[in-house]
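User: Please run a holo structure prediction.
Assistant: Happy to. Please share the sequence and the ligand.
User: Here you go; the ligand is D-serine.
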Amino acid sequence: MSGSLSSVDPQIADLIKAEERRQTDTVKLIASENYVSKAVLEATGTVLTNKYSEGYPGKRYYEGQQVIDQIETLAIERAKSLFGVNHANVQPYSGSPANLAIYMAFLQPGDTVMGMGLPFGGHLTHGWSVSATGKWFNPVRYGVRKDTGRVDLDEVREIALRERPKLIFCGGTAIPRTIDFPAFAEIAREVGAVLAADIAHIAGLVAGGAHPSPVGHADVISTTTHKTLRGPRGAMLMATSDEHAAALNKAVFPGLQGGPHNHTTAAIAVALGEAATEEFKAYAHQVVANARALAEELNSRGFDLVSGGTDNHLILMDLTPKGVGGKPAAQALDRAGLETNYNSVPFDTRKPFDPSGIRLGTAGVTSRGMGTDEMRQIGVWIDQVVTALAKGEDEAEHVVARVQGEVRELTSRFPAPGL
Ligand code: DSN
């Protein structure tokens, strides 16, 4: 019981080391990932994992909460102060359970929910067909315009007026443009729906002032804590007014979850503390500047960017004009040390497991201290690998090998936090 991981389970210890090496040597361009700080990492690996705490601070179903109550209260207070909300629940295990809690709080099975369709940039839990939210509720969807790649709010209003959803989601997983929270709020008010802003991707940008805040517009805000917010894997639900606090709390526990993961709660508190600093504000703005620089480089090299560019941390590209599928491109880029994910693009004619696009994000590379010069270099490498792949696998492998060496040289100059 007292041996170190490497002596008790060398197999797992070696695999963790291998993953650490992999993360060190690659350029993380996955839009939903980041590198947490050493302090956040430290908080996740603590004795807090030993404790059960069903309930909320001051009202638990287990004794021994003298310390846990203080930790959870700190996390809640930091969330409230950072985002300017009256209520925060830091217990959802991740983004999907957080969103399910919104259904539990406001809807009955069979009620209508309106969200952005998954291939247009929404999330599974916004009512997509394969998700419980699409099976147990009545989902209606909006997308983006074919000519602009952007949400058409007139269309959103039209669908809302026709379908009368009880819940509307705005936000998603592959939206490169600013979300117009006031416009969504107006539509929700007009049809009497609850507006949920899913800011999982952009929470760090909102906290750092690099994206408008949904506070004062959305009735409820859900977010994961591990994307641009740079915390541990977890989630939060927030509300501007006290009106929805009790319903949201009841939905998370006992509605959907048991004991909160206290080690995660502590790490969320640490991340929220970090996100309240001037340094984090500068980080959030640099994430956006970096995405813009990368988008410009890719645009100048003839890549087809959905909506033509980006306002945030995220770029979605359709590789069809390059003659390459998203999946082989992501795989070749991964071999070169550039980690991305293949992704459907709006109006994709290919299947989700072999789609036309790739998605890129700059949260991770910015945490490593990279700036716009490095983004332009990354754009050059992406172009070289994709162009070579279009000519054939053999051609691509030469280029991949060369780029991999150059990527290693770059990553060695920008150590990742926490590694
Ligand atoms: N899988 C997350 C993302 O990559 O955006 C969303 O669930």
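The radius of gyration is 22 Å.
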